[in-house]
């Protein structure tokens, strides 16, 4: 246990986190840096489930905006999340961290299917479980996938690593006086349409009392700081 607050967490990273300074795709150095952070959290005694988005490669909405069938585009997006999961698995294993990828779309040549009891066993054995392909259905996002896996794996918190260090009352990149919330209620996030995660993901966390901790993954060492409470973040609870 890192600080007594959490025993098991689900870490959700958007695909864009893996791009580094690139405008597309996977930057191996960035993946290695994030993997080192995950390892540090694991070494601190935490059980870690990981969900990585696919926005650095393909988003269904973007495809649909260009005339593609939405469901077809969403399946492409889900496949993108599997590529990211494999990249993260590779980086973690190069650091000596044992991992398993479980995909909501079965592809037995590359990874396991999602099997909750098996995932439970992996965590008990000290492996990091990377859940890929979201919920396995179109019209959803990996935020919903993260909330779903956090609920079924009985995680103590959903840590959402983004490019900003919390939730603000205005866009901090545009408004200098924007104020960061320390805490927020799920209902406030939903009623004010605050951009934390998709509404369905926030509602699922609310209904299962899973706190959502929004923090910046761009700063080195931030996962551990979030875990010991010394970092900068917003908690939705
Ligand atoms: N996706 C989906 N169902 C899911 C999860 C993901 O259809 O359960 C598709 C959807 O097209 C989405 C894309 O996969 O845009 C990539 O996921 P997401 O946008 O959540 O990635 P992120 O923004 O976190 O990088």
UniProtKB/TrEMBL annotation:
Reported function: Catalyzes the reversible phosphorylation of UMP to UDP.
Keyword Transferase included in the entry's annotation: yes
Protein name: Uridylate kinase
Enzyme Commission number(s) from the entry: 2.7.4.22
Pathway of action: Pyrimidine metabolism; CTP biosynthesis via de novo pathway; UDP from UMP (UMPK route): step 1/1
Positions annotated to bind UMP: 54, 74, 135-142
Family matches, as NCBIfam families: pyrH_bact
Quaternary organization: Homohexamer.
Activity regulation comment: Inhibited by UTP.
Recorded GO MF terms: UMP kinase activity
Database matches in Gene3D superfamilies: Acetylglutamate kinase-like
Reactions it catalyzes: UMP + ATP = UDP + ADP
Localisation per UniProt entry: Cytoplasm
Domain Aspartate/glutamate/uridylate kinase: 8-216
InterPro entries named in the record: AceGlu_kinase-like_sf, Asp/Glu/Uridylate_kinase, Uridylate_kinase, Uridylate_kinase_bac
């Amino acid at each position: 246990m890192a600080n007594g607050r959490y025993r098991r967490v689900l870490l959700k990273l958007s695909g864009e986190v893996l791009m580094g300074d690139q405008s597309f795709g996977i930057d191996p150095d960035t993946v290695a840096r994030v993997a080192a952070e995950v390892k540090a959290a694991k070494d601190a005694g935490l059980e870690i489930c990981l969900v990585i988005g696919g926005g650095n490669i393909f988003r269904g909405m973007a495809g649909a905006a260009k005339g593609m069938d939405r469901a077809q585009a969403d399946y492409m997006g889900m496949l993108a999340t599997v590529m990211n999961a494999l990249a993260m698995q590779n980086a973690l294993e190069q650091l000596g961290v044992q991992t398993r990828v479980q995909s909501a779309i079965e592809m037995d040549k590359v990874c396991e299917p999602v099997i909750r009891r098996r995932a439970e066993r992996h965590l008990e054995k000290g492996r990091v479980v990377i859940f890929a392909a979201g919920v396995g259905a179109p019209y959803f996002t990996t935020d919903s996938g993260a909330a779903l896996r956090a609920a079924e794996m009985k995680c103590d918190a959903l840590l959402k690593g983004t490019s900003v260090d919390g939730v603000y009352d205005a866009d901090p990149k545009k408004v200098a006086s924007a104020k960061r919330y320390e805490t927020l209620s799920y209902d406030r996030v939903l009623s004010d349409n605050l951009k934390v995660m998709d509404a369905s993901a926030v509602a699922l966390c609310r209904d299962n009392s899973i706190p959502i901790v929004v923090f910046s993954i761009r700063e080195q060492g931030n996962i551990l700081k979030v875990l010991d409470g010394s970092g900068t973040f917003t908690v939705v609870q």
